[in-house]
Amino acid sequence: MRYLKEGIITKLYTCVEQETCIACGNCGANAPKIFDYDEEGLAFSLLDDNKGQKAVPKKYIDDCLDAYDSCPTGSIQIAHIPFVK
Q1: What is the pLDDT of residues 5-60, one digit of tens each?
Q2: Helix, coil or strand: residue 6
Q3: Partners of 16 in beta bridges
Q4: How many CA atoms lie within 13 A of 7 on its CB side?
Q5: Which residues neighbour 6 within 8 Å (Cβ) at sequence distance 6 or greater?
Q6: Residue 77 class from Cβ within 10 Å (0-12 exposed, 13-18 middle, 19+ buried)?
Q7: CB 13 within 8 A of CB 83
Q8: What is the SS3 assignment for 77?
Q9: What is the helix (H) or strand (E) element at residue 61, kind and residue range?
């Protein structure tokens, strides 16, 4: 919990830009409680069907950030406020 212990992040929201996702599997490997794959193999956020409006549970924030850091296409989006879609 590197970010939580330092008090850097209190809330985090995430979604995946599926248009740029290459279905590499990094997000699901790093954060299986946050990301899954649709029938085409493209990643999406399990939290709220990829809307980015439900906060990542605190115990999974580091996993989510690891997935964000490992995404080769930058398809994982993160924010400190909910996304507007």
Answers
A1: 456 667 999 999 999 999 999 999 999 999 999 999 999 999 999 999 999 999 99
A2: coil
A3: 76
A4: 0
A5: none
A6: middle
A7: yes
A8: strand
A9: helix 61-70
| Cα 34-16-2 angle, rounded to 5 deg | 50
Please state, in angstroms and rounded to a whole number, the distance separating the CA atoms of residues 29 and 66. 10
Give the pLDDT of residue 10. 77
Distance CA(62)–CA(21), nearest Å, equals 21
Inter-residue contact 85 to 54 (CB < 8 Å): no
Q: Percent of the chain at pLDDT above 70?
A: 88
Average pLDDT over residues 65-76: 96
